Amino acid sequence: MDVLRPTLIQIGGRVYRKSLVQEPVHPQEEEEDEGFYAAGPGDCADEPCDAFVVEETEKGFQCRVEVPSPLYKYIIGKKGETKKRLETETRTSISIPKPGVEGEIVITGQQRGGVISARTRIDVLLDSFRKKQPFTHFLSFALTQPEVQERFLQFKEEVLEKCSKDHGVSSSLFQNPAKLHLTLGTLVLLNEQEIRKACELLQRCKEDFVDQITGGSPLAVEVAGVEYMNDDPAMTDVLYAKVRMKDGSDRLQAIADQLVERFVASGLMLKEWDRVKLHATVMNTLFRRDPGAEERSSTAPGKASLKEREAFNARNILKLFEHFYFGEVQLDAVRLSQRFSTDASGYYATSGQLNFC
């Protein structure tokens, strides 16, 4: 039944089925090659496809595709085998810029269908390997008001005073107060062009729906109460502070959900949940070994493993601090934050932002 009903994936409005046929792989080969074939009406190899431009030239047909240089190796493959196979099976020639040089991959061939087939297969390969890249940026709301930072430090002090004897609880679990934030979603932006594209999309979102929801004013949000991520409070990896609109509305949730929807549709972000889970991480077991792991999570792309974590018992923390009040925040901007970075204020470096006011 897995063969008859293969996994379907969507790329740029087209649908593909993922072949279960395994290609032979070389020992210790970093690059993988997965077989994909267009499904139904999306099969661009057999019929005209307007998802991308194919130009007619004196020698046949040509198609160009912008690809970040870190992804070139997945099209080339070990010893150039992936590229050779693509060229042979589609009867095309694929020109790839030199490693580290940003540019376009150019596909040329005598048959239009062959060029379309090569482009389609390259798109699917790139989509597959992009999902395996550790994310580089994330959309965030900064919770850097002095009142919130002071209350967070008070929370930390009281937790260590009252719960330090509970299994796994230590000062190394706590978030850096200068980097308290809400994460809306993570992105893999591999060159300046993709960062610029994300910034431009933020501004379009401001014009299309954010200004209408905010009315051009900051959103008053209260940060209060704590909750845990997993099923067993005695084996907790992430403890977070809950947030709510002070006026009781769902405007913050609406902005978060619509932003993620737009970024997912653009291909810059992967869809993880039906709705954004608004939360501010206050304790994380990944901080124990890596204080710079602020934005890594078990659901995000990357190589974090369960072996890196040592869970803690959060039962007493949840009982004693169920309604702990961290303070009120005026949210006035969505930031495109850079992972593993710090600006002059101690928060993450900002590649771009959407201002409410």
Layout: helices, strands, pairs:
Layout: E1 8-11, E2 14-18, E3 36-38, E4 55-57, E5 60-67, H1 72-76, H2 81-90, E6 92-95, E7 103-109, H3 112-130, E8 137-142, H4 146-163, E9 181-187, H5 192-214, E10 219-228, E11 238-245, H6 251-266, E12 279-284, H7 315-320, E13 325-331, E14 333-338, E15 350-355
Helix pairs in contact: 2-3, 5-6
Summarize it.
With 357 residues, the protein is of the alpha+beta class.
Write up this protein.
The protein is of the alpha+beta class. It has 2 domains: 8-130, 2-Layer Sandwich (Ribosomal Protein S8, Chain: A, domain 1); 137-355, Cyclic phosphodiesterase (Cyclic Phosphodiesterase, Chain: A, Alpha-Beta Complex), CATH 3.90.1140.10. Helix content is 27%, strand content 25%. The protein has helices spanning 72-76, 81-90, 112-130, 146-163, 192-214, 251-266, 315-320, and strands spanning 8-11, 14-18, 36-38, 55-57, 60-67, 92-95, 103-109, 137-142, 181-187, 219-228, 238-245, 279-284, 325-331, 333-338, 350-355. The chain has a 4-stranded antiparallel sheet with strand order 4-5-7-6, covered by helices on one side. The chain has a 4-stranded antiparallel sheet with strand order 9-8-14-15, with helices on one face. A 4-stranded antiparallel sheet has the order 12-11-10-13. Helix 2 runs antiparallel to helix 3 and helix 5 runs antiparallel to helix 6. The longest helix is centred in the middle third of the chain and has 23 residues, at 192-214. Residues 21-49 and 295-304 have low confidence and may be disordered. One of its GO terms (biological process) is DNA alkylation repair. Keywords: RNA-binding.
